[in-house]
Design brief:
Elements lengths: L1 H16 L26 H10 L2 H5 L18 H18 L4 H10 L8 H11 L6 H12 L9 H8 L10 H24 L10 H7 L3 H16 L9 H19 L8 H13 L1
Helix pairs in contact: 2-5, 4-5, 4-9, 4-11, 5-8, 5-9, 6-13, 8-9, 9-11, 9-12, 10-12
């Protein structure tokens, strides 16, 4: 009975300390299959985080590339390090806004768990050849619902919703999910810039001057300014938002990356081989 009180104490703490806009663990809409008893020491969202962290699908992220398909060196991002950076940014924002950090972390760790090998090049080729199409966010949900361990992880509705809607047209139903959605974009834009500069795909001088003026010259400065802007502007609303000028500048950075890095750059010289490999495996 003493152990049981630990989870209840945490749930009571959330109710007393977190923002009225936060998603409380005890108010979760429940798991995909309502067949489990409550953990004695962890909330439902803490259990979800642990299940994702210990899954085989999560460990496989360390071998999946982010932008560079066959980089020379150990310092370029993988899908796993991207996931960890998203988690760090998202947790910082959630903590500042007094949202549920456990839910935020669980969504962050699971958001790309179904991503293809070879980054978005793999996603494109599977979407082209598969009759049902392919989107990595939908497959991430498929992994946690059915494929992992042959039966899925039986996660809560809120975590599953955040994973599915971290990208695409639909917004997550929780603010924690929307934090992850924003943190994902902040992370990949900034670390891809750093990797592209390290890989001599672009130079720091090519980054649009208005973006440098707005966000600073280094990855640390850019992330810091973006996170602070989100916290400041989200405190005044019931949503997770940036100021208009910051959002437009971030989109300008993203468009710059698509023009100079994501499409037809030397970072993509191995993509055709990767696409052929996946297509041959799929047909086999």
């Amino acid at each position: 009975m003493i152990l049981l009180n630990l989870r209840i104490e945490r749930e009571n703490f959330e109710e007393q300390y977190l923002s009225p806009l936060a998603t409380l663990s005890k108010n979760s809409k429940g798991r995909l299959y309502d067949t489990e008893t409550k953990c004695e020491i962890r909330t439902d969202f803490q259990r979800d985080r642990d299940r994702i962290l210990y899954s085989k699908a999560f460990r496989r992220l360390k071998h999946k590339t982010q932008v560079f398909i066959s980089p020379e060196g150990d310092h370029y991002r993988t899908r796993l390090t991207h996931t960890l950076e998203v988690s760090q940014i998202a947790r910082t924002i959630a903590r500042c806004l007094r949202l549920n950090e456990d839910l935020t972390e669980a969504i962050s760790l699971g958001h790309d768990i179904g991503h293809t090998p070879f980054g978005h090049a793999g996603e494109r080729v599977l979407n082209r050849i598969c009759p049902l199409g392919f989107k990595h966010n939908e497959h991430s949900l498929r992994v946690v619902d059915a494929l992992e361990a042959g039966k899925g992880l039986n996660l809560t509705f809120e975590v599953r919703d955040g994973i599915l809607n971290h990208t695409g047209d639909n917004l997550p139903c929780t603010l924690e999910g929307r934090v992850v959605r924003m943190a994902d974009r902040i992370a990949y834009i900034n670390h891809d810039i750093e990797d592209a500069i390290s890989g001599k795909v672009i130079t720091a001088q090519q980054i649009p001057k208005e973006c440098v003026k707005m966000f600073g010259k280094t990855i640390g400065e850019r992330i810091d300014f973006m996170v602070k802007n989100i916290v400041q502007n989200s405190k005044e609303t019931n949503d997770i938002v940036m100021s208009k000028e910051f959002f437009e500048a971030m989109e300008a950075l993203r468009n710059f990356m698509f023009e100079y890095v994501y499409v037809d750059s030397i970072a993509k010289k191995e993509e055709k081989k990767a696409e052929n490999m996946l297509e041959y495996l799929y047909m086999y």
